[in-house]
Write a structure and sequence with these properties.
About 50% of the residues lie in helices and about 0% in strands. The protein is built from 5 helices and no strands. The protein is globular.
Length: about 100
């Protein structure tokens, strides 16, 4: 049996600076930068940190409706996840404002 390289980290600390740092993530070639950053934030942050990130994201002039190569928005993806309701509501609210 192989040993895991990394253990899952629970209850990690998300400072405001760490949340902001997601705006500077390296975006792989061929990816829509706004979609990629928003999707990575959704996948890695707790809801309260994601809500904070949305404020920084929009203040930076980023597109909340950015699409991936399959013409999907992050909201489309979140709505397909059973436990994504809070994230979807936060993103929908940010889109309306």
């Amino acid at each position: 049996m192989q040993k895991k390289d990394k253990e899952k980290v629970l209850d990690e600390v998300w400072t405001t600076e760490r949340v902001k740092d997601f705006l500077a993530l390296h975006v792989p070639a061929g990816e829509n930068p706004d979609f990629y950053l928003l999707h990575m934030a959704y996948k890695n942050m707790r809801l309260e940190n994601f809500e904070e990130f949305l404020a920084f994201f929009t203040a930076a002039g980023k597109d909340l409706n950015a699409k991936d190569s399959q013409d999907r928005t992050v909201l489309d993806l979140i709505k397909s996840h059973k436990k994504g309701q809070g994230y979807a509501a936060a993103l929908e609210s940010a889109i309306k404002n």
